[in-house]
Amino acid sequence: MQGTILIIDAVATNRIMLKVQLSAAYYRVVQTDCVADLLSVARRSRPDLVLTAMTLPDGSAVEVQSILASDDTLANVPVIAISVQNDNAGRMKALAAGIDDVLNQPLDDVILQARIRSLIRVRSSNEDLHLQHQAAQSFEPPLSERECLAEIRNAKVALVAHDAATATQWTARLQSLVPYHLHSHQIGDIQQLMTNPVPDVIVVELRESTAGPGLRLLADLRARAATRNSVVIAIPSPSNAHIAAEALDRGAHDVLQSGFNVQELALRLSTQLLHKARSDRQRNTVRNGLRAAVEDPMTGLHNRRYAKPFLERVARNAAESGESFALMLVDLDHFKQVNDRFGHPAGDAVLVEASNRLSKLVRPVDLLARVGGEEFMIVMPGIGEARGSETAEQLCRQINATPFHVPGIDEPIHVTTSIGVVIGGGNPCSDMSHPSVSDLIADADCALYDAKHAGRNQVTLCPVAA
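Structure (tokenized):
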């Protein structure tokens, strides 16, 4: 089954016809004929989408949307209203109330199925994002309605048409209805759409005679990293259900099925921007949560949780390629005395500056991580014994050559470091098993201990046989 759809309609023949259409597309269909039974049926069936008649014996599609929105478990279920007449005022009222689309009878199966696929796909994506947001264990509250409205006020909207005159005309007609920054473009100037900041919404004209370039642009926008999170709205010109359905299947977030309508476009822009603001907040929270899980908050370096899998990948690649790599454990000498004498804030400042100094000598392909209070791990792929020893000596001098100057502390703080180095990899043809990552770390730790025992402020190398 592709999902569950709840049909709400007082007319039995309408429900039967819809059930036949949707069952043929492998949807599970549940039904009710009134608003009064909505919550009990929806809570029991957990629909992925609701198809409701615009007018019901005991209410309307707008009331259906309101009831669903009031229930936390059903609030994100998309709603399509079905109208028996082409009532533009009723359509605008329904869209303003949060209904996702209004389709007129007789229903065009092509656009109905495409609409359903699109809305269920978006809902599934939003649910995945919500689960990731929860997994990130964020305590950041969702955006309120007022915060969303404030955030979207300065949104950037690109209106892309087949010719400059149409794009300019659309921009002029829309300008008085929305507060957003509007920019007109032609289909061919995609490069301008990719420049930062990329538009929050991209409206694309799909002309009936030359829809190909517009549909290709739409798919391209959804595939590119720069515009992947931009909202894309397609406008068939003139109205064309097959082109609208194709646009939805290629990833458009929304379509104006009946062609350009400035009031409807203004409504859909606001609705889509509100959705985007909430999704962006969740996406940023997830990203920050994932970063926090592998990042040391004080120094901004990676932490132990990230360092060990990185070392495992380097060791595995070295075993396959025969390349050597260097693993270093770096420990600041007598660091407890810094904290005891100057205070923990001064000690924190020394740690931050030490990480900055070490960072200057590592390459983009290397790893520098803080793995303990004053201990750092460095992994350098493609480095042999000679280069590893030389680099470790440079790192040692990078710390001890210049005193640390901490704001609020009059005297300079002299800090030295000890470094244990182990060389791994280097022999892909050997039948001998390669040392495990745990063994490599243990060897580096022994080398670090030897450097400490020998008087500190020095490097000790412990080569490892591949």
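The chain has three domains: 1-107, 140-293, 304-461. DSSP finds 16 helices and 17 strands in the chain.
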